[in-house]
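During the no-cost extension, the postdoctoral fellow (Dr. R.K.) reprocessed legacy sequence entries with the updated structure-token encoder. One reprocessed record is reproduced below for audit purposes.
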Amino acid sequence: MKIGILGAGAMGQLFGGRLQMAGNDVVFIDAAPSTIEALNAQGITVRSEGQESHTPVRAGTASDFNETLELIIVFTKSFHTEAAVASVGHLISTRTFGLTLQNGLGNADALARSFGPEHTLVGITDFPADLERPGLITTGPGGKVRVGTFTDGSRAFLRLLVDKLNEAGLNASAEDDIQTHIWEKLAFNAALNTLSAVTGQTVGQIGASGPAKELVARVVDETVLVADSQDVRVSRDRIEAALRNAYKHAGEHKTSMLQDREAGRRTEADYIGGAIVRLGEIAGVRAPLLGTLTTLASEPIQ
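Re-encoded structure tokens follow.
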């Protein structure tokens, strides 16, 4: 399959590298010259459980490529989605599918405007991906990918996509209730990412603190209520299990939101916590704690 990875950060390099290793023809599309140069010169190495796999890759800006792609997987930050997808319009045909595995809400709508609703796929992943340097990714066991359709169309391509992801060792499944999985991950991210960004704590430090865990539980409560208002029924047990797993196995991990805030970069707080708060306000459901954390996580560290 001819695949484009739009956004060659840690997750993009992990997924694209594994898909390339599985025999697909993958191009990496990014805006950072240093990342493009490193990937073209060194390829991608994925480290997992003491093993290393390597592949050469092709990387460039959107204008460097002119081939029609069968699938474009979007891994950019949410606030870059619209512009990033527009930049690859010349690589999209009537047979091209778009897949978002990004955090937050609103990305699928942006893809649907370019690919068409019937050619838009949505999903989540909990694979860990730490970028040691451009081209060197460390991951761990137990990750999974859950994907579904944006509309009732594209079921045949969805099955093909799941097969391709599994051939690449990415533990994928097709889900009829993908919105449930999206909201469960949204609750997880809204709680951990915003709190870590505000406090500077790692995942393990939050898990070791009674007061911090109480705040996490309150954010989850607020998110579940907003999900209910959107007719999405989530499993509190699955959310809590994911949190416990993160406390146990990702203790030293700094969330991406905290890393962005420490580096002086814009965070995705408005597309995660902010999106939940706005939907709640429309439905008459308040999320005051999450609103406060989102506001604080959106501000640069002084």
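Residues 2-176 form a domain with the Rossmann fold fold (CATH 3.40.50.720). The CA atoms of residues 84 and 152 lie 25 Å apart. The remaining legacy entries will be reprocessed before the final report is submitted.
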